[in-house]
Amino acid sequence: MKQILKLTGLMLALAIIITSCGGSTESKLVGTWKAQKVETDFDEKFTTPEMLRQVVEMQKETYFRVIDDSTLIIISPGNTHQTKWKLNPEDQTIAYFFKGSPTLSNKLGTLISGKIVSESKTPLGIITIYYEKE
Q1: What span, in angstroms and rounded, lies between the C-alpha atoms of 25 and 93?
Q2: Which of 5, 26, 98, 115 has the smallest number of CB atoms closer than 10 Å to its CB?
Q3: Residue 11 domain-assigned (yes or no)
Q4: pLDDT tens-digit map of 74-95
Q5: What does the mean pLDDT of the chain come to?
Q6: What secondary structure letter does DSSP report for 46?
Q7: How far is Cα 54 from Cα 59, in angstroms, rounded to an integer?
C-alpha cells in the first residue's frame, strides 16, 4: 500500500513539474525570427520578375528579435528599431508599437502553428511573409 502511495505521489509531482515548465505563449516567442518563405501576389502589369526577386530578397533581410514579454527589436539593413509588443490571446495576432506612440499599434503578424505569418497589402499587391524562430 505504501508503494502505491509513493508511486501516486511521484506521478502527481511529475505532472505538476511538466505542466509548470510549459511556459506562456509569450515566453515561447522569445528568440530571433527570420523570414523563411515570402509569397507575392502582385499585379503583373506593374512588376517584372527582377522586381519580384528584389522585393522577396529585401523582405528576407529584415528580421526581428523578441527579447522578453514586451521588447521587440526589428532589424533591417541600415536600421534597427526597438519597440514594445503584445500578443492578443484571442486571435493570436502580434502587434507592436513605439514607446512614444503607445496607442498607435502596427500588426506584426499572426501566430499560426509555430510560425508568424505577416500579410501586407501594397500598391503592387499582397505580400505574405512566413517567419520561423531560429
Answers
A1: 12
A2: 5
A3: no
A4: 999 999 999 999 999 999 999 9
A5: 84
A6: S
A7: 9
Q: Report yes or no on 44 lying in a domain.
A: yes
- Output the domain CATH number for residue 43: 2.40.128
How many distinct helices (H) and strands (E) make up the chain?
3, 8
Q: Is 8 a domain residue?
A: no
Cβ neighbours of residue 113 under 8 Å, at least 6 residues apart? Answer: none
**Per-residue cell: 39:** 509569397
What is the per-residue DSSP string for 108-130? Answer: EEEEETTEEEEEEEETTEEEEEE
Question: pTM score, two decimals?
Answer: 0.77
For residue 97, is pLDDT > 80?
yes
pLDDT for position 23: 65
Looking at the DSSP bridge assignments, the partners of residue 110 are 93, 117
The total number of structural domains in the chain stands at 1
pLDDT digits (tens, 9 = 90+) for 54-78: 989 999 999 999 999 899 999 999 9
